[in-house]
Amino acid sequence: MGAGKSSLVLRFVKGQFFDYQESTIGAAFLTKTMPEQHVKFEIWDTAGQERYHSLAPMYYRGAAAAVIVYDITNQDSFTKAKNWVKELQRQGNPNMLMALAGNKADLADSRAVTKEEASAYAEENGLAFCETSAKTNVNVLEVFTDLATRLPRPSAPQPQSTSGITLTEQPPASARKSGCCS
Amino acid sequence: MRFVLPVQEDWMGSNILEVNRDLMSAGRLHPGSMQEGASITASRPLRHFAKCSQDADQGTIRSVDHIRSLRLPFLAFLDRLGRLSIVKAGDNSKLAPAGRAVNIRNDVRIVDPVTQRVELLPHLHVDQQLSSDTERPFKGKSVSSTSAEPPNAEWKACGWTPCGDMLLGTWRCSEPPFYTWGFALMDQLSLRCIYTDVGSADKMTWASATANGSQGARRMAYFPLLYTNLELLHVNGKWQAEANYLKHVISYGELAHLAPDGGSLVIHAAHTGCLSHLNLKSDARWAVTPSLPWLFREELPPQWAPFPRGWTPAYAHVHDFPKDCVEVLQEQHADLLVDIEEAAANIQMEKSIGRTHIEDHCKLVLSRLCSGRSMELQTCIETTFLLPLHPDLLSNMSMSHATEDEALTRLMAGLVSGACEVDKLSDDAIVKMMPAHSASHHSACRRSGSSSPASRSVPQGVATLCALPPNMRKSDLQGAVDSLARLDSIRCPLEALQRLSEAYQALSLTVRLTRYGHAGEDGGSADELLPLFIAALVLAQPRGVMSLLHYVRTFHVAGDWAGQDGFQLATLEAAISFLMQHLPPELTPPPSSYQDTSECQSFMTEPAPTMSLLEALVPWLLLCVGPSPLWRPSATSPWPAEISMDVRFLLRKMISHLQGYHLCLR
Asked: By three-state DSSP, how is residue B119 classified?
């Protein structure tokens, strides 16, 4: 059972508040423009299977931001998310913004990872954090809006900037910490 | 003391024949003219000659400013002792852009492209008077360089070898990377300098490759057959011959014999029917039999057709462009045809001189021509512009990645045929890895007792390798497979991207149909698309897919790859990487001799390093310019002992590429 990263991004891109989505190649590559923030997200989905883990650098290389998604009902997924954070901190773009998303918040009754534990970890590693539910559309927009707000802007005003984002199940340390839904 | 200095405007000499013949017929160039005070009045065919002051004893040029003022790319001259000196002068000519015209690496400070500062090449001394032996003036005479590189090594003369009515002189360094220089003299009356290009950074490993037999390395030998260079390529354990005639690659000849120990080589020259013999074992001690006669233009075989059209390449004319592209261009931007024609001609001029940085030139031109255009127009521009270069460029990439390409081809063929087995995964393991909806579907199949669908579409070995979810194994991948198979016939990098896009769209549709039974909007996540893409790639079995990947990346900077094209290319790269990780031991390429560091390895394998790769080498640069600089004060100074041979090689290659980027380290 996955953490729901593809569902999360599909919820974000297909949401009702923005009409700028471009249908591309399924949920593997999606774009979403946020006019207020003058940001266009290009979201690259990475295969979550362990078998393809070693291929992830080819996707997050050069990304401006990463959303690391874990399943709050699965302690193992949180552990894997932390491993992803380490990897991105070690090998990713040093200026990459990272957000930790505890997905499936609608299944809080089956929670295996407490919000406090995840929040503390995010705090410790300088990650933005919030619990989300792609199913009930809770905090999904907030995760990306927070990233869009924190992305560095070009000095000269431009109508739109393009920011690549990689969807993984974890992020890096040098990014500014922010609590997107706290 | 003044000497007459023959100067070639185009190093490979578009006018050299006329010049020499004119001189000969006019009787103005003879042994006596190589004396103090001799001069030649520059006139039309003689405009390529210039006079220059020289100190005969030291062999150095005093009047650098004068050379610079000539704005000619090269000066080559002999002093009365027969010493050969070559100077690459500051140049604004499009024929030979400064720093690019000739890749003379070894201890040559190439002209600073910004300041046009003139640098001297090492002087190669011929220790005999030019006229001491009228038949073979340089045969057997020792030749040495005043600026050996690296310092612990010595330049050794390999002698002058008669070849037709020319002489081929070679030198090599006793330490790797082995440099070999070759200069050909037509006769004692006129100096011909045919640059061998052997010192170019990407072709340094011949001697070592010969010694250790590593695959993929290449080295070249040159025949002074007019302007033809014959490259001997050591690819996948086999020697191949490729000749560059003028600006065209021609199928020159085939290897008639290669000694079991790799030490000798016999080439059957297709055009002349002659046999040539090279002794490869003795590290550049050449034994070239005089089999290829010097030919004048009128004597060229008719099959070398491009020559009569002059130096403007035939394919740079509009009527040679691909018709489908011309139609699009004429319909949308007819003026682009003129631009492309001109740009192609200019590129070809440069290609005739040195092709090491031809990719950089092409990228610049394409960037200018394609900016702001639609994808269709960009593809037409790129196809048209690269048409004459595409085979050569892709061939270069193929040579660099021949080993990986061969291994991948064999792996894919083995997987499809079932002959190749990789690590096995149980269905249960696959179910654990795949997305929830796929797992459910698989469980449902099992519950219903339906047989495994794997064998109906995707071969078991492929499905297992990719951990393809069982419900996807019966998917129709034919659309994607067809698109990927067409990668073999692309005409430009953008066309490769189109094929990738088609494949991805087809796979996305496949996922939708498999999952929902209709072509809805949601096309599946990377969890499904990546395994399917790998499976489709294996089934398509495109040749040279590693070369193709580098070919596409070479023509586009990293910034181009932020969008969907970038994602699809990253997926191709991921698929290739995945397959490389699963190569059986017998297909795994042998390690490179320069594999100490990942940077070094990347640098060795990158035909045209990206800026990101150069950035990765910053630590090395810092070592060179840091508080305790390891950099040599001059090109001829000794390397510090702490710099290992591999690092020296790395630095040298890096500098070569930096020169290509018009950066100046000093």
From this structure: strand
Give, in degrees to the nearest 5, the angle at Cα B221 between B220 and B222. Answer: 125
Q: Which chain B residues are closer than 8 Å to A50 by Cβ?
A: 433
Exposed/middle/buried for residue B424 (C-beta within 10 Å: 0-12, 13-18, 19+)? exposed
Of B433, B526, B578, Cβ closest to residue A28: B526
The predicted pLDDT at position B517 comes to 63
Mean pLDDT of chain B: 50
CB contact under 8 A, B529 and A26: yes
Q: Which of B434, B467, B525 sits opposite A27 (nearest CB)?
A: B525
The minimum CA-CA distance between A49 and chain B, rounded to whole Å, is 6
User: pLDDT category, A124, cuts 50, 70, 90?
Assistant: very high
Four-point Cα dihedral B279, B280, B284, B285, nearest 10:
-20
Chain A's closest residue to B520, CA to CA, is A26
Cα separations (Å) of B73 from B87, B89, B107, B182? Answer: 8, 5, 18, 19
Nearest chain A Cα distance for residue B405, angstroms: 19
CA dihedral angle for residue B246, residue B247, residue B248, residue B249, rounded to 10 degrees: 90
**Closest chain B residue to A55 measured between Cα atoms?**
B574
A57-113 per-position pLDDT tens digit: 888 887 889 999 999 999 999 999 999 999 888 887 788 899 999 999 999 999 999
Nearest chain B residue to A30 by CA distance is B564
pTM for the full model? 0.53
On whether the CB atoms of residues B255 and B242 are closer than 8 A, the answer is no
The pair of structure tokens assigned to B510 is 């496949």
In residues, how long is chain B? 666
Is residue A96 within 8 Å of residue A171, measured between CB atoms? Answer: yes
Is residue B152 predicted with pLDDT exceeding 70? no
* B577 neighbourhood in chain A, CB within 8 Å: 54-55, 58
CB atoms A26 and B436 under 8 Å: no
* Contact call for residues A8 and A69 (beta carbons, < 8 A): yes
How far does B572 lie from chain A, in Å, by closest CA?
10
- What's the rounded mean pLDDT across residues B567-591? 83
Residue of A nearest to B528 (CA): A47
Q: Which of B235, B16, B522 is nearest to A11 (CA)?
A: B522
Report CB contact under 8 Å: B562, A51.
Answer: no
Q: What is the identity of the amino acid at A83?
A: N
Please list, in sequence order, all residues whose beta carbon lies within 8 angstroms of the beta carbon of residue B445, skipping any fewer than 6 positions away: B452, B453, B470, B471
User: Domain spanning A5-30+54-153: which CATH class is it, in words?
Assistant: alpha beta
Q: Between vectors from CA B526 to CA B519 and to CA A62, what angle results, nearest 5°?
A: 130
Whether residue B653 is predicted with pLDDT greater than 50 in this model: the reply is yes
Distance CA A154, CA A37 (A): 12
Contacts of B581 in chain A (CB under 8 A): 54
**Cis bond upstream, residue B542 (ω within 30):** no
**Among B423, B497, B564, the residue to mutate for chain A (most A Cβ within 10 A):** B564
A39-45/A161-168 β-pairing:
parallel
d(CA B87, CA B102): 11
What's the helix, strand, coil split of chain B in %, to 5? 45, 15, 45
Which amino acid type is present at position B297? Answer: R
CB atoms within 10 A of CB A135: 16
B643 alpha-carbon distance from chain centroid = 27
Q: Give chain B positions within 8 Å (CB) of A48.
A: 526-527
Interface test with A, best of B571, B582, B615 (most A CBs within 10 A): B571
Amino acid at B166: M
Nearest to B573 among A44, A58, A162 (CB): A58
| Alpha carbons B389 and B358: distance in angstroms, whole number | 9
